[in-house]
Structure formats: structure tokens, C-alpha cells
Amino acid sequence: LLRRAAVAREEGDLDETVRLMRRYLAHRPDDADQFMQIALDAKANIFAKAAARQTPHRKEIDLAAYLMDEAVRKSPGLKTETDEPDVQRQQQLWREAAEFWFALKNYLAASDNLELIGKDNWEREYSDAEKSAWPAGSSKVAWTNDDDRMLYIECLRLMGSPEEEDKAIQQLQKIVGYDQAKNAFDTESAEMP
Predict the structure, then answer these.
(1) What Rg, from alpha-carbon coordinates, does the chain have?
(2) Neighbours of 65 (CB within 10 A)
(3) What are residue 85's DSSP bridge partners?
(4) What's this model's pTM, rounded to 2 decimal places?
């Protein structure tokens, strides 16, 4: 089934690819790698149809959403060849999920997936001492990719609640080095001068 799905993928028949991958996953539901692949195939299928000005069926969108959520849920199972957690592929999946949800205008789901990236970075980038000194009440996210951060800010802005807009403004202030208490810019503290 995997071989046939790969051939269908190479031929550009993403409907058949998804169908075959679903059959495979019915027998191997814990295969995180293949769940990631089918989620990406389903996303590509939806986006390809939209680009070709074909309206995807609601069932296809619902299936892609389900597969994306399942792949994200199973993403801790993504491993390297040495059986270590595959952080790069996990983050790539979360990024793909965020893009999928953003395109469907589900900004909350998109921001949730981007927060997974930011929180994962925060856990790996900071020492225990730096974490314990982290200001209370501030978000525990770290951005290593400017595109992720900007999409996160855009999601917060589009959600429209005052709380989310405040979070977006705080993120933008960090980027440009604006200190609200001093009402001044500090170029040395700017994260993206």
C-alpha cells in the first residue's frame, strides 16, 4: 500500500494517495511518520484543488483537518534514525498545520500549532536558570524562525479579542525593541532591528 501510494503521489493523484494511505493506517495506526505524510498529502490535495479553482468537497476538507490533527497528536512519535525525537520534522509538521488552519481561517488552531513550535523552542533554548528567572505572566515561547513569529502575530491580530491583540502588540514590541514603560525604543534589545 505504501509503494502504491508513493507511485500515486509521484503521478500527482493525491486523491488515490490519501485513499491508499488511509488503508495502510487502518492497519498501522501508530505510524507517526505515515500520519505526517498523509496529513501533508491531504493538505497538498486541498491546496492543489484550490489553486486549480476546483472547490474541494467538504468531506475532503474535514478529512484533511482530521488527519492534520491526528498527525500533530502523534508527532511526539516522529523519530530520527537513532530513535531520538525528530524535532525538525515535528516543528515542520506543526508549521504545515498552522499554514493549513490559517488558510481555512481557523486562526486559533493556527496559533495553537505555532505556539507548539515556540514552546518547544523555549524548552530547548533556555537553561533551567534562565527559565526560573523568566518573568511571571509572560509567554513561554521562543522564536527561531521569523516567519513563524510573524504568522503567529497575524493569527493573534485576526482573532480579534482584546487579549489576543495585546499579545500581538507585545510580540511586535519585542521585535522592534520598544519599551512601553519608558515609552522609548531600545535598538539593543530589538530582536529584529
Answers:
(1) 19
(2) 20
(3) 79
(4) 0.80
